[in-house]
Design a protein that fits this description.
single chain, mainly alpha, 230 residues, alkenylglycerophosphocholine hydrolase activity, lysoplasmalogenase
């Protein structure tokens, strides 16, 4: 973790710039889109700093990078959500969750974690359902299913009882949970009722989630196994 910290300094600085400037959402512009996306751009650089060979040889890392790219596009769309681009942002983040799920993989399966995430996702949708209308009735259902699936695959990777876990998998798990909190806050604020300090909650959990998921791409297990064998 210590070795990765210095590579994340640009991300922390960019995040501070976003919260210090705190540009009003009522006047969207390309400058506000740049400031909002800048921390995600820094996470691109964080992964690219590990080398192209690393990304090519680790499919999970390359898929997380692709997810971060779609996230940045989604962030840009959401800057103009009042102008009708909310669905476009929703689509970009849906693709992001598919890529993250693919990066986390299907092993171990952990059906208990899947059942738990299914129940949580169903309860969230059941609560939102009465507030939804038109195409959002179906789009939100699909989106919740995708992020719930992503959360399941992240949680399944953390096998604490069997001592089969690494800090990268734990990072993915916490990141996925924070992503779900961020998106749930968006849904409540967008469709149900105004959430106090919604923007602060959404962006703080979102940036933390993306950082942790990016960190999860840095796999150390192979290096540790090599050291044990030698």
């Amino acid at each position: 973790v210590k070795s990765e910290g210095p590579k994340l300094v640009p991300f922390f600085k960019a995040t501070c710039v976003y919260f210090v400037l705190w540009l009003p959402t009522s006047s969207p512009s390309w400058f506000s889109a740049l400031i909002k996306c800048l921390p995600i751009f820094c996470l691109w650089v964080f992964l690219l700093a590990h080398g192209i060979n690393f990304l090519v040889s680790h499919r999970s890392a390359s898929r997380i990078l692709a997810g971060l790219i779609f996230s940045a596009v989604g962030d840009a769309f959401l800057i103009w959500q009042e102008q009708g681009y909310f669905i476009h942002g929703l689509l970009m983040f849906a693709i992001t969750h598919i890529l993250y799920s693919s990066a986390f993989g299907m092993k171990p399966l952990d059906l208990k974690a899947g059942l738990l995430m299914g129940v949580v996702s169903s309860c969230c949708y059941a609560f939102l359902y009465s507030y939804l209308s038109g195409p959002f009735t179906y789009l939100v259902a699909v989106y919740i299913a995708l992020i719930g699936f992503m959360g399941w695959r992240a949680v399944a990777g953390v096998q604490l009882c069997n001592d089969l876990w690494t800090w990268t998998k734990l990072s993915a798990c916490v990141g996925a949970m924070l992503f779900m909190v961020s998106d749930l806050t968006i849904a409540l604020n967008e469709f149900c009722f105004p959430v106090p300090y919604s923007r602060l909650i959404i962006m703080a959990t979102y940036y933390a989630a993306q950082m942790l998921i990016a960190l999860s791409a840095v796999e150390t297990r192979d290096e540790e196994d090599f050291r044990k064998r030698s």
